[in-house]
Amino acid sequence: MTFDPAELERSPYARFLRVTLVRQEDGLVEFRLPFREEFVRGDGADWLHGGVVAALVDITGDFAVATRYGSGVPTIDLRIDYLRPARRGDLVALGRAVRAGRTVGVADIEVRDARGDLVAVGRGVYAAPRQG
Amino acid sequence: MTFDPAELERSPYARFLRVTLVRQEDGLVEFRLPFREEFVRGDGADWLHGGVVAALVDITGDFAVATRYGSGVPTIDLRIDYLRPARRGDLVALGRAVRAGRTVGVADIEVRDARGDLVAVGRGVYAAPRQG
Amino acid sequence: MTFDPAELERSPYARFLRVTLVRQEDGLVEFRLPFREEFVRGDGADWLHGGVVAALVDITGDFAVATRYGSGVPTIDLRIDYLRPARRGDLVALGRAVRAGRTVGVADIEVRDARGDLVAVGRGVYAAPRQG
Amino acid sequence: MTFDPAELERSPYARFLRVTLVRQEDGLVEFRLPFREEFVRGDGADWLHGGVVAALVDITGDFAVATRYGSGVPTIDLRIDYLRPARRGDLVALGRAVRAGRTVGVADIEVRDARGDLVAVGRGVYAAPRQG
To answer: Phi, psi at residue B45, to the nearest 5°?
Structure first.
């Protein structure tokens, strides 16, 4: 199953961040967050703000489970572990649905910086759509 | 101890989100995130995007421990639990430093929507500044 | 609402640990874990093993939401933050249901050691009983 | 690097649970928790108590980073996601050190039940040993 990519376009917050969908398969998504000067930690800094990484983790985990449920679902909880600072440049995130149950779905997310280094890992729990 | 409020101004990401510091005391901070149309879940939606709440949790936790350490410190990990959807309108976040040790600091964060309802709780672990 | 305290007695793992219910109210529970020599970090050590604290957090969070749902429910995820080492002696844990929704319940847990110091905080998400 | 397996023997809590080390390599450990009747959810139940899974996650994550640091280190925080109920029988856990930095180490843990099904995933942050 997949989700309709137009769903991303309908999200003002995703447009605000200018996040783009690179690919989606069953249980797997890849997103890219193009670099903007507003994303660095301090003016002229070489490193990205942790909140930018968090925003990408959130969107990626949500759509990873969306590939299983057919559309985006509400986040129940989200966790992000920062492994090393992210260099200025585009971020790429890979999300995998590790579970898509009747009550909740669980996603694992990896974020890499422009050099390809793993800068953060995330895990999120999402509410399954109610069966009608 | 407190941190220099200008530190917030020097953060392009905080300016991008337009988050404002309402008050700071030893171990306590309050931030406000003024509503913007870009923050809703879908065009014209009544509810805010979870990533907006996450961004506010991140900044609030960081500065809560900054009141103890004297300046912002790197996030080690961050967790957000969404308790109910946040209505369109300003968000207010309260952050408390529950620990400021030699190795790490820990912060608890509460986010309320414009109606005053608790919409999310967060907890973050931050690296203590290295002693010189 | 409350749960039947006999439910705790019917849990072999709770008996194994010898955890006892101190009190329960709507949305609130208190448990005590009596000290045993098997709970220290190393033979003769002055400090308790983190896994013992984790076990108490787990049970306390589960029964905190059980006061709202009427019986124990499956854990979806659990997080424990260790704030300081726990001294040898009894542990006491206080659990609060911060949410008891249709899909999930959320509990906050505080653990104190024999001296009354806060040694750990926990947060858990639990699956709501299916309506039927 | 590895840790001295006798360290596990010196832990009363590990002996109490009767957890055994299956193997260790640099950054990787495998543990087995032999089934005991005390570990089930209710008398005669077919499923293991979540707290038993949590205890195994805790020990496995700690020793995964210990392969990098040379000895066990204090847990800063620990998270466990339960993916499906664990059947009665032995549990096996695999732990990987995903980071071993100067301030903290991070471990990922997978727990499988006797049938080989993935029943839980965990992630822990541990304090790096202080450099003398």
So the answer is: -70, 155
Query: Which chain C residues are within 8 Å of D74, Cβ to Cβ?
Result: 50, 82, 85
What local confidence, expressed as pLDDT, does residue D11 receive? Answer: 83
Q: Are A107 and A124 in contact (CB under 8 A)?
A: yes
- Among B77, B79, B103, the residue with its CB nearest the CB of D103 is B103
For residue B125, give both structure tokens: 């672990």
**Token code pair at residue B2:** 């407190």
Give the Cα separation of B85 and B104 in Å (integer). 31
* Most C-contacting residue of B68, B76, B81 (CB-CB within 10 A), to test interface: B81
Picking from C99, C96, C16, C112, the residue whose alpha carbon sits closest to that of residue C60 is C96
> How much is the pTM?
0.94
Of residues B15, B42, B85, nearest to A10 (C-beta): B42
Tokens found for residue B30: 């309050």
Cβ within 8 Å of residue C3, ≥6 positions away: C24, C63, C66, C67, C69, C70, C71, C72
For tokens 């670099």, name the residue: A35
Phi, psi of B24 (to 5 degrees): -140, 140
| B70: three-class secondary structure by DSSP | coil
In degrees rounded to 5, what are phi and psi of residue C63? Answer: -75, -25
Helix, strand or coil for residue A40?
A: strand
What ipTM score was computed for the predicted complex, to two decimals? 0.92
Look at strands D75-82 and C75-82 and give their pairing: antiparallel
Residue of chain C whose alpha carbon sits nearest to that of A130: C103
Distance CA A23, CA A17 (A): 18
Check: CB of residue D129 under 8 Å from CB of residue D104: no
Q: How many CB atoms lie within 10 A of CB A110?
A: 18
Which residue, chain included where needed, has tokens 């907006």? B52
Among chain A residues, CA nearest to C77: A125
d(CA C86, CA D95): 25
Residue type, D80: I
Q: CA D89, CA C6: separation in Å to the nearest integer?
A: 26
Task: Tell me the pLDDT tens digit for each residue of B28-82.
Answer: 999 999 999 999 988 888 999 988 999 899 999 999 999 999 988 899 999 999 9
Nearest to C120 by CA among B130, A76, B123: B123
What is the band of A117 on the pLDDT scale with cuts at 50, 70, 90? very high
Question: What's the rounded Cα separation, in Å, for the pair D97 and D112?
Answer: 18
Chain C neighbours, 3+ Cβ pairs < 8 A: A, B, D
Question: Could you give the residue ranges of the DSSP H alpha helices within B5-69?
Answer: 6-9, 12-17, 50-69
Q: Which subunits have 3 or more CB–CB pairs within 8 Å of chain D?
A: A, B, C
Nearest beta carbon to residue A121 from set D83, D98, D101: D98
Cβ count near D94 (within 10 Å): 17
What does the mean pLDDT of chain A come to?
93
Distance from the D26 Cα atom to the nearest Cα atom in chain C, whole angstroms: 24
